[in-house]
Amino acid sequence: MIVYDKQSGTFTLHTCRTTYQMKADSHGVLLHLYYGPRLRDGDLGYLLQYADRGFSPNPSGSGADRVYSLDTLPQEYSTCGVGDYRLSAAEVEQTDGSLLLDLRYAGYGIRPGKYELEGLPAFHSQGWETLSVILRDPSSGVEVELLYGVCEEDDLITRAARLTNRGSGDVRLCQAMSLCLDLTRADLDLITFDGGHVRERNLDRAPLRPGVQGVGSVRGTSSHQHNPFVVLCERGAGEDHGLCYGAALLYSGNFIAQAERSQFADTRLVMGIHPHHFRWTLGPGETFTTPEAALVCSPDGLTPMTHRFHRAMRRRLIRDPYRDARRPVLINNWEATEFDFDAEKLVDIAREAAELGIELFVMDDGWFGARDSDLSGLGDWTVNEKKLPGGLEALVPRIRALGMGFGLWVEPEMVSENSDLYRAHPDWALGAPGRPQTLGRSQLVLDFSRQEVRDHIYDALRRVLDSAEISYIKWDMNRSLTDVWSAALPADRQGEAYHRYVLGVYDLLERLHRDYPGLLIEGCSGGGGRFDAGMLYYTPQIWCSDNTDAIDRLRIQCGTSFCYPVSTVGAHVSAVPNGQTNRSTSMETRGVVAMCGTFGYEMDLGRCTAEEKETVRQQVCTFKERCRLIQEGDYYRLTDPFHNRDYTAWQHVSPDRREALVSLVTGSTWAAKPFLTLRLKGLDPNALYRVNGGERRYSGDQLMYAGYPIPPQRGDYQAVQLYLEAE
Length: 727
Ligand code: GLA
What we know:
The chain is built from twelve helices and 39 strands. The chain is an alpha+beta fold. Strands 6, 7, 8, 9, 11, 12, 14, 15, 19 and 20 form a ten-stranded antiparallel sheet that branches. A nine-stranded parallel sheet has the order 29-28-27-26-23-22-21-31-30. α6 runs parallel beside α7 and α10 packs parallel to α11. The model has no long low-confidence stretch (mean pLDDT 97). Alpha-D-galactopyranose (GLA) binds next to loops.
């Protein structure tokens, strides 16, 4: 619910459990007043404190009022060069070359439904209200429209900004954040999710220090190294207590998320496109739209914050037909064959898998052009008939005859130097004239900011997709961007290339969504290098990591879980010893870990023993049976695998709390381990549960507060799964 109170001038945004308030003061400065647990209506302007602070200037219009300073007041969208020395939300190079921006209130609108951001991903669906607040720079024609989407039911507030040049000359944006949030406290921790390739989204938590701290990416993608999701929380906050703010950016390119603890012990969080190499020219009348940021405030810990993001993403970010739909259990041939396969080998792998109940066969890299290694072939999206005689027209019916769907791998944004496409259009790859390009995995990046490049790739993909019954593609992206210079842009507009590239990727994905509405697209970027809420709008699942080691995955999947729903996390059982770590774990353990995701296999099941195959058959069966519970249930982290390596446990609880699935995996073992009693979460205290079909009944309160004993596990990396059903 959005309430504008004429008398006090406050805008109040209520969700079920939270309240957000701002107001334009007598100087027309839009001040942030509150974001936290839900409050009754009322003007929170009494919270503002005014004092004459040395070296905090007084803006135009405040006259001799030395207690009025932008430097000391909480801002809703901070300005630049006019007296607020904290992080700027926007920086604009004006026609006269100045970098000054002073934003004052100019009007508002409230309407049912959600605003739309053309060409950008956004939360959608029913149950939204929109607030738009207009701010103007009185000395230039720059206008900023702040957009707020309020989803009361899911406790979600989204934000974006539109910056318009209403003047008569060009201006240049140097920075345009999606989100600026001022909190009048500094006793907060910043949680970020960091790592690298095969080590994504490890949780890092540190108290805010004076000054600026944060994360970002300048790699052209959201990156393996940092994630566009951060949390600010009270020092003592844990899974079940303490105030937490989660902020996710729906963007898949360069991003920044920074928190600044200022001199007066308040905190500013800004999030948006990274200003590095970002310059955007706005001619008269032109508008720039920022990506969307989504905010959740949880007064009672990290778990409820996670639940709100999960629910909202599943129902209001993922689009039909995959909104809350069960994803097929798949088998992917990559780790089994890499580039070395032919049709017979693939059909053998598929046949074994089909017999064990697997529903979708995915042919990974190596099926096209001269792609016998990662040195060549990208860009030539025609079937390599030496490997696959008769093309997809011959292969796909054979797979479908096994009762399976068929999917395939593509990497549309890339080109190999050794490819027909590159020989025909060397200028289509990103790179500045007269400068040698930088290779990554021996490949170059196509300039997706250019329409003709996208059209060519799209036509090639269409020919593939129309040639056979294909129900899935894995959209990969296997390097970071370099040499970002676009032949389509003049010299003074090269600062637009990174963002135009991302818009180009979104454009192609949107075309696929429009023309192939049932096609399931799994995102991938060397595993989880582009695991962000922007991609999830187009690709309802994302390959979580190239690291399929079950034990490393405990941390990667746990870090991912803070924001992203289980149904979006690509997770497979692969062969042992694991290719990344050389570690061996049992089929049971690998299965339990992969079940906390979309679930599938990435190995030649033909090489398994009869006993292992039986385990696979049972796992597939269990997953199909428990899938709704796993993917739509509330997800609880029962332990913290970043600090406790003895064992990791998590739990899925059905929305009606009648069912739960508890999973536990132990670390490397040691003698005389302490007994382990696991305290469960989220159950109905009054219900009576049976555990794994046993005779004994345990009440929900017993299981949650007294706990459930886990028998001592012998050996390394053991897995336990408990299925709880209420009577
Ligand atoms: C990336 C992906 C892998 C696989 C290979 C193929 O690394 O993450 O899953 O598809 O590319 O080259």
